[in-house]
Write a structure and sequence with these properties.
CATH class of the largest domain: Alpha Beta
Distance between the termini: 15 Å
Largest sheet: 4 strands, antiparallel
Number of domains: 2
């Protein structure tokens, strides 16, 4: 997506479409679930945030209920169910390790789930994927 004050206009020009058509097509792709998210990605550590991967062992019958509770917290991202003993995995971000621990304590108390693994990052492995396009 063009980094610009007017990204939809610029994209429309690149594609020889009107802005309304670009917005309409993006909307359709979102409704179909092809586009899940549009937005910037930031290096949260460089912005001063901490994060950890969390795994919870949730009874299957409560998975949806617990996921909804977990998703309530603003620091939660990337929440997935897994075919594993620890079947609910998410990333939790906070301004400090203390904030992360406090949020996990609240999640534990609210859900009643005792088996929670906190898996902080030890080393960063990042794949960079960039799509380039030629501008007219």
């Amino acid at each position: 997506f063009p980094v610009s004050p007017y990204p939809y206009r610029d994209l429309a020009e690149d594609l020889d479409l009107c802005v309304e058509e670009v917005v309409s097509r993006i909307s359709r792709l979102k409704k179909k679930g092809i586009i899940l998210r549009m937005g910037a990605f930031f290096d949260s550590e460089k912005l001063g945030f901490k994060s950890t991967l969390v795994a919870m062992k949730v009874p299957q019958a409560r998975l949806q209920e617990v996921a909804k509770i977990v998703n309530y917290y603003p620091g939660v991202t990337h929440n997935y169910s897994r075919d594993h003993e620890f079947n609910l995995w998410f990333v939790l971000m906070g301004k400090s390790k203390k904030e992360i621990n406090e949020t996990l304590r609240k999640i534990k108390n609210q859900t009643g789930i005792a088996q929670i693994l906190k898996l902080p990052k030890r080393r960063w492995f990042k794949l960079y994927l960039n799509f380039t396009r030629e501008r007219k």
